[in-house]
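Anyone opening a protein record will find just a pair of labelled lines. With that in mind, the following record should read easily:
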Amino acid sequence: MTGFLLFLVLLAAAIVVIRQVQRLRGVWVTGPDGRRRFPQAASLRRALGLGAILLALLILIPASIRVVPVGHAMVIFNTLTRSFRLARQGVTIIPPFITQTETYDLRRLEYTMTGTHGEGRKANWDDSLWSPTQEGLQVGIDLTIWHHLDPERVVELHQKIGPDYEEKIIRPAVRSVIRLVISEYAVMDVYSSKRAAIQDEINAKVKSLVEKDGFIIDEVVLRDVRFTDEFAKAIEAKQIAQQSAEQMKYVLEKEQREAERKVIEAQGRARAIDTITQALQRNPNYIKYLYVDKLSDKISVIVSDQNTIMDLKGILESKASR
C-alpha cells in the first residue's frame, strides 16, 4: 500500500516537472551567437521552489503513512507532546520524524514449551518445564498457552512492558505456576488420574497471575508429561507386575470357584447316598430295583443267586405303572 502511494506521488511530481519545463521554454533567451541562455531570475526561482516542494513531498509522504495489518494495532508515541494513541488496522497518518511506532498482534497467539525437537518457541533445545512432584521426583511438562492482548490496554502494556511481553511475563508466570502446582501432586496423579484437575488448576492460577497486566489467557493445555529414563523403566516394570498380579488373581478366583463347585457336587452326592441308605433301611429289595433300573430293556430274566430267578418283566411293568 505504501509503495503504491509512493508511486502515485512520484508520477504526480513527474507530471508537474514536465509541465513546468514546457512553460519555461518560452522564457529562455538566445544570445547573439545562437546559444540559449538561462531563463529569467523569477522563473528560475519558481522552478527551484517547485522542485524543493516536490522533494519535500517525496520525503514527507512516505514518512507520514503507516499501514496497520489486519488483526493488529499500532501504538504511536509523539516525542514532542509525549502522548500516546492507538491506531487500528488500515492506513493511518502520523507526524513524520517526531513519532515512534510499535505494532502489536491482537489475534490469538500460541506459545508452546516442549522438549520435542523442531516445535515450540525454543525449537532447538529441550524446553520442557521440569518440576519436582510431591515425592521429589522430577517430571517434565510440555504445554501450549493460547492467549491474546486486551485491545483496550495495548498502550498501557507498551508503556509498562513492551513488545517482548511473552518472554517477560507469560513464560516466567507459567513456569512459576507449573512448579507450584506440580509440587502438590504425587507423580502417579500427574501421570494419569488427576491430569485434568491439574490442568484446570494451572489455568486458574495463570489467569489470575497475568490477566491483571492486560493479557487474556484462553487456555493452557498440557501436551505431554515426561519422566526421567530411570522412572520410566520403573513405571514399565510396575505395570508388568500389576498385569501379572491381575492374571494370578484371575487364576486363583477360577480355582476357588472350581473348588466351590466340587464341594457343592460332593454335598449333592452325600445327600443322594443318605436318601438311598434310608430307602434300603425301609425296603431291602430297593437295591434290586436300582440294579434292574440300570439294566438294558432287552433283558427280561436274571438269576440273582443259585436259588432265585427274578422276573424282570414284572418289576419293569411295576416300574412303568409307577
